[in-house]
Structure formats: structure tokens, C-alpha cells
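Exercise 7b. C-alpha cells:
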């Protein structure tokens, strides 16, 4: 895992080395100051030599300026490298997420993926910035402090250098116990994000059922879990500071005990003892800084591991060679089998052939496999067995982009994005002209309500199209699909929120505007599919009826029952 982290750091090597160089300069001048100060005390102040004191005082001032300049540039380069690493990791994870199948997304969960791309990357960025600056500065200051200490008194220098292993052992024990606690903390944050996300998205349902107090309790419980998990992790990690300070104070006491005796015996001057005290403080405080950095590093490696899980996950559906074009909109299922992961087989030995340009209605009860059937065509899910051909070739012969470019899919849930109406329509074709946009919206019965907005097609819509009604969102999604000019158009119950007159108008526009396009229309209303070239009736993953409206009335009992129920519903509605 460390090697993989280094691979991500390589592009930022220049900034890392520049930061390290500046840190070394900062350390050298920072530790040179106590050495000069000791000389001022011993040779300037004690001897009353004002000129010596002023000259060395000015030298200390120049050194301090160098410390500031080197420190600023060290942090600048470290920050640039850390932010660059975070950007690269976020981009790599997001690019991989674009290749994920629904199974991959279900494995991680939306809330967990958001946490990984935000909280985890922020943790890595912060640690990287601190590490780049202090992983060089702290060891270099320790080295220079040791060198200057030995120049003053080798005997006393050895004494407090021996305290370093004590601090390192304490830190190692803490780090080994921290890793599982950080994992548990991040999982609790994942769950908290999930609760927040669900509550924000489902605010209308929460208010409609007056479940605010219930949701508050769920939120409080999840929040408490994060607090408890964080307390277990952070409560242990903060032990490094007091334990390290304890060692530092004990070292200081020992230094004054033995150093004071040497001063009395004339083996050491007051200035030298003062310098040794400064170096002891610097040495052990840098060890303590490294200890705290190790704790941060331990947490960031947990975050990096979680990101690697995303980056290294291979999508279950991969591109084909893409050497053959999608010639037309013909579709052929040959002994196709399919089952969701961990679930029983939904479809078995399914055979179906749809010529290019045919309009096919699909109807059936809830859970009969209608949506699953059409989701297999653009490879949103992959078949478990058999062969599925589109445009004369197996779907596995195409790249995913090549196949999906020829298919326009309007799912049950109308999905729009923040921005203007025009921005959402141009998702289909970025080069679409104004006339093509208008024509598609007229066909989808969307132009009427769009033209009523003061800003027309430039009207901004809220997140997910929240400022529009359900029927308006559906019509915009249909217009977007028409604008794509596909070879295959799939409508998965895409007119459920529009009235019957609008539904009929949209269907009529399909016949005139998309005459050569294969159209698959899933619907709950018989009136939405009765006009089609043929109707498929599905039940328990099987096609139990295939024919025109008139033929199915004679041959398919399930279809007759659906018609009877809906006729009864219409009579009851208008009675």
C-alpha cells in the first residue's frame, strides 16, 4: 500500500523536494540561534563586550529572518503537493466510479462513496502537508540539535538522546491500537452520511407522515455512534502528547541536575547549559512532533486504504473490442438467463426477437421483470447466460460507450441535474441546434410549459429538478431522449405522471418523429401500449404473451385481466 501511495506522490516530487530543502534550511538556522545565544551569554554579557553582543545579536536577527522565509516556502510547496495529491486521488476514484455497475455501487453505498471522496481525502491532504514539512524538518532539527549538543557537552548529549527510544516505544504501542479504531470511526461516519442523505432527499415523506421526531432520534443515535467511535480513537491518540511531555520534563530535570553540577565544578558555563536546554527541548519536542504525525499518518493510511478499495475495484461489466458498428436497432434475446447477485434466477431461457424500427409495448405486474428486461439491453446489468444481440452483433462486441450512444433510456425515476433546462437537454447531444431542441420539446409536450417561464429554456431548475412537477420532469427526460436521436428508445414507465391526453400526444409524436427507431415502452396503462406494433406480457420473468392488443385479448388471460381491471377502474373513475 505504501508503494501505491508513492506512485500517487511521484507527480508532485518537485514540490516535495523543494519543501524538504526549505525545511532543512529552516532547521539549520533555527538551531544555530541557540548556539550563537550561548556565545553571547558567555563571551559578550559575562565579559561586558557590547560590540560582540551587538554583532552576534544582528547575526541572530538575520538567522531568524532566514527561518521565517524558509518556513513560508516550505509550507507553500508542501501545501501545493498535498492539495495536488488530494486532487489526483479524488479524480482517480471518481473516474473509476464512472465505470461501476449497479452491483459495484450497491457494494459500497452512496454515503460511503461520498465520505471517501470528501472526509477521507481531506484527512490524507492534511496529513500529507504536515508530513512533507515535518518529516524532513523534524529529523533535520533532531540531527542538528544532536550535533550542536555534542559540540557543547558529549556526556550530557548522550544522556537525553537515550530518552528518544522511550518516546518511540510509547508511540508505536499507541499506533498499533489506533488502526482498528480509525476504521470503526470512518464506518460510523459513513452511516451518519447515509442518514443525513436519506433525510434530506425524503423530507417530503418525513413531513407528510409527521416522522420528524423519529428521524431526529435516528440522527441522534447515529451521531452518538460517531462521537463514541471518535472518542475511542482520539482519546487514545492524544495520549502521545502528555506521555511525550512527561519524558521531556524528566529529561529537563536530569539535564539541570547533572548540568548544574558541571556548572558548579567549572566544566560547563551558564550559556552552554542554556544552549543544551534549548537543544534538549528541540530534540524531544521534534520526537513528540513525529509521534503526533505518526498518529495522523495512521489515520490517513486507513483513509487511503478505503480510497484504494474504490480505485482498484474492477467493474463487473467491461468494454468489448468495439470493432463492429451498431448497424440498426434490432434486438435479439437467445436463451438469456439473468439473476441479481445473491438472488434467485429471475429470467431463464428467454427468447425474443425485435426487428429494427418496431414499437413494442411491455406490460405486466410489479416484479414481473419488465425493467430488468430493458436494463439488459444497454448493459446496465450483464446477462448470466445465453446471448443478447443488438444491431446484429453480441452486445459484448461493443464498447459500453459505443452501445449506449445508440440507446436512449428514460428510467422510472426522472433524473435532472442542477442548471438550466437547456443544460439538461444538451446532455443528449452537446451540438444540438436551437431548432432541434425546440422540436424535441414539442414532441415531448414540454415546449408549452417551458415557454411560460420568463427565461424559457434558460430557466434554472433546482437540484434534481425540484422546482418542476413530476409530469414536467418526465416530459423533459423524454425530450432529452428524443434529442439524442438514438437507434433504440426505451421508456420505462416514463409517462406515469402525465395525463392520458398528453401521453397520447407523446405517442403520436413518436410515430412521426422517430419512424425508424426501435421503441420499447413499459407502461402500467393499457392505453399506453395498445397502439404498439406488438405487446409483450411478462409474469415472473417470463414472456407469457406476445402479440397485438386484439390478439392478446383472445390468447392471454393475464392481459385480459389487466384490461378488465383497468376498464373497471375507468368506469369507477367517471361514474
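Sequence design result:
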Amino acid at each position: 500500500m505504501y508503494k501505491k501511495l508513492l506512485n500517487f506522490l511521484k507527480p508532485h516530487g518537485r514540490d516535495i523536494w523543494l519543501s524538504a530543502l526549505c525545511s532543512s534550511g529552516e532547521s539549520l538556522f533555527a538551531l544555530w540561534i541557540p548556539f550563537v545565544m550561548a556565545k553571547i551569554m558567555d563571551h559578550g554579557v559575562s565579559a561586558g563586550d557590547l560590540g560582540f553582543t551587538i554583532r552576534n545579536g544582528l547575526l541572530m536577527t538575520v538567522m531568524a529572518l532566514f527561518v521565517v522565509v524558509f518556513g513560508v516556502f516550505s509550507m507553500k510547496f508542501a501545501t501545493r503537493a498535498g492539495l495536488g495529491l488530494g486532487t489526483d486521488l479524488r479524480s482517480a476514484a471518481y473516474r473509476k466510479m464512472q465505470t461501476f455497475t449497479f452491483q459495484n455501487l450497491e457494494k459500497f453505498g452512496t454515503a460511503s462513496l461520498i465520505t471517501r471522496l470528501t472526509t477521507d481525502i481531506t484527512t490524507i491532504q492534511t496529513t500529507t502537508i504536515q508530513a512533507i514539512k515535518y518529516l524532513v524538518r523534524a529529523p533535520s532539527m533532531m540531527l542538528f540539535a544532536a550535533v550542536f549538543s555534542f559540540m557543547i557537552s558529549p556526556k550530557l548529549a548522550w544522556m537525553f538522546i537515550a530518552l528518544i527510544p522511550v518516546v518511540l516505544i510509547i508511540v508505536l504501542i499507541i499506533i498499533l491500537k489506533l488502526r482498528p479504531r480509525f476504521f470503526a470511526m470512518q464506518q460510523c461516519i459513513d452511516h451518519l452520511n447515509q442518514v443525513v442523505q436519506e433525510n434530506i432527499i425524503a423530507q417530503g415523506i418525513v413531513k407528510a407522515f409527521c416522522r420528524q421526531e423519529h428521524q431526529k432520534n435516528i440522527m441522534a443515535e447515529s451521531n452518538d455512534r460517531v462521537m463514541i467511535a471518535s472518542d475511542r480513537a482520539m482519546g487514545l491518540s492524544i495520549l502521545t502528547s502528555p506521555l511525550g511531555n512527561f519524558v521531556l520534563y524528566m529529561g529537563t530535570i536530569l539535564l539541570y541536575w547533572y548540568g548544574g553540577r558541571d556548572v558548579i565544578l567549572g566544566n560547563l558555563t551558564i550559556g552552554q547549559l542554556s544552549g543544551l536546554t534549548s537543544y534538549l527541548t528541540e530534540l524531544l519536542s521534534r520526537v513528540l512532533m513525529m509521534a503526533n504525525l505518526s498518529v495522523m499518518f495512521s489515520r490517513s493510511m486507513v483513509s487511503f486504504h478505503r480510497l484504494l478499495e474504490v480505485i482498484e475495484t474492477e467493474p463487473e461489466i467491461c468494454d468489448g473490442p468495439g470493432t463492429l458498428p451498431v448497424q440498426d436497432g434490432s434486438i435479439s434475446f437467445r436463451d438469456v438467463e439473468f439473476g441479481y447477485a445473491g438472488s434467485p434466477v429471475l429470467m431463464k431461457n428467454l427468447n425474443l426477437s425485435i426487428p429494427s424500427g418496431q414499437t413494442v409495448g411491455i406490460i405486466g405486474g410489479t416484479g414481473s421483470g419488465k425493467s430488468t428486461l430493458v436494463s439488459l439491453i444497454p448493459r446496465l446489468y450483464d446477462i448470466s447466460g445465453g446471448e443478447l444481440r443488438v444491431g446484429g452483433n453480441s452486445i459484448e462486441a461493443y464498447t459500453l460507450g459505443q452501445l449506449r450512444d445508440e440507446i436512449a433510456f428514460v428510467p422510472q425515476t426522472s433524473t435532472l441535474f442542477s442548471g438550466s433546462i437547456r443544460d439538461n437537454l444538451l446532455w443528449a447531444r452537446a451540438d444540438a441546434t436551437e431548432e432541434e431542441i425546440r422540436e424535441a420539446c414539442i414532441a415531448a409536450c414540454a415546449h408549452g410549459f417551458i415557454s411560460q417561464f420568463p427565461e424559457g429554456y434558460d430557466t434554472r431548475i433546482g437540484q434534481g429538478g425540484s422546482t418542476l412537477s413530476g409530469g414536467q420532469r418526465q416530459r423533459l427526460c423524454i425530450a432529452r431522449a428524443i434529442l439524442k436521436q438514438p437507434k433504440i428508445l426505451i421508456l420505462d414507465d416514463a409517462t406515469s405522471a402525465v395525463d392520458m391526453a398528453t401521453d397520447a400526444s407523446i405517442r403520436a409524436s413518436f410515430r412521426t418523429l422517430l419512424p425508424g427507431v426501435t421503441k420499447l415502452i413499459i407502461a402500467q396503462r393499457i392505453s399506453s401500449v395498445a397502439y404498439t406494433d406488438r405487446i409483450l406480457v411478462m409474469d415472473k420473468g417470463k414472456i407469457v404473451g406476445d402479440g397485438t392488443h386484439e390478439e392478446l385479448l383472445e390468447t392471454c388471460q393475464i392481459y385480459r385481466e389487466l384490461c378488465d381491471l383497468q376498464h373497471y377502474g375507468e368506469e369507477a373513475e367517471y361514474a
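Instructor comment: Confidence is low (pLDDT under 50) at residues 568-575. The first strand starts at residue 331 and ends at 338.
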